[in-house]
Amino acid sequence: MDPTENSQSSNLPDSTQSQREARGPEGVQVPLAEVGEAEATATPSGGVSVGTMFRSPQNAVRASSPPTALGSIAGAPSAEASHNPLRRMSNSTFISQDVINRKVVILVRFLLLKYRMNQLTTKAEMQERVTRDYEMYFHVISAKAIDCMWLLFGIEVMEVDPHVHSYALVRALGITYDGMLHGALGIPKTGLVIIMLCIIFIGENCVSEQDIWHILNAMGLYAGRDHFIFGEPRRLITEHFVQEGYLEYRQVPDSHPPSYEFLWGPRAHAETTKMKILCFFASIVRRDPRSYTSRYAEALRDEMQRI
């Protein structure tokens, strides 16, 4: 790990909500390497779908942060708003995207360690991982690391004390399962649970196994082939996610030969909402959730029934 030095001028992004609104259509590169035993790199590719999000090692994702991830944090405005953050941040210093990516990797690994240890982190600790040489890029690096945690792992970086700038790492959207004892050990799987719930809800609450695997294959997940985050995905999805109550996996009536389909399980209904899932999906594809007219209406009805 790089030498650590305290920085006085670096700042986390103002808020992840403002980041999402400010980012241009090019999206954000979200690199991952050596998370556990594996390496992955994400690069922007213009428009994306759910099917491109977890491809390894070269997956195209448009990173998206949770609405409540950091709250309001005093500091410099997000450089992402310029649509050309590296050029606008310094007149005298330019560092390559590869260097930025390596710093993001270091910070993601640090945040995963904090999550596994169930410890809070602080802005100062995160700054130390970036080092003084890159302090002017800290809010870009931290934004990308937060995006990685949210999108790939389903972990939200949430401010708990604005006075000391401390943050908790919590599972997103109300999901209480992280799957660290399933698949690749020690790596959160909440992100895949959320993606499965997105696919099913957008697919009108019931999706065939064939269609699920068509999407998962596009994400770089194949039955019988170990994935760098999820391990063997078929067992993870059809056994562990089902046993944990997040998915229902049932045979299609009167199907010959037998075919199967996926629905939300009872624990998914209990822990999260259709509106949260819809908003997560809409943020990935950069669409207003209301543009999914029937899905939005159903999510609203679900919200009313919970009151």
UniProtKB/TrEMBL annotation:
<protein>
    <submittedName>
        <fullName>Melanoma-associated antigen 10-like</fullName>
    </submittedName>
</protein>
<dbReference type="Pfam" id="PF01454">
    <property type="entry name" value="MAGE"/>
</dbReference>
<feature type="region of interest" description="Disordered">
    <location>
        <begin position="1"/>
        <end position="84"/>
    </location>
</feature>
<feature type="compositionally biased region" description="Polar residues">
    <location>
        <begin position="55"/>
        <end position="67"/>
    </location>
</feature>
<feature type="compositionally biased region" description="Polar residues">
    <location>
        <begin position="1"/>
        <end position="19"/>
    </location>
</feature>
<feature type="domain" description="MAGE">
    <location>
        <begin position="100"/>
        <end position="299"/>
    </location>
</feature>
<dbReference type="InterPro" id="IPR002190">
    <property type="entry name" value="MHD_dom"/>
</dbReference>
<dbReference type="InterPro" id="IPR041899">
    <property type="entry name" value="MAGE_WH2"/>
</dbReference>
<dbReference type="InterPro" id="IPR037445">
    <property type="entry name" value="MAGE"/>
</dbReference>
<dbReference type="InterPro" id="IPR041898">
    <property type="entry name" value="MAGE_WH1"/>
</dbReference>
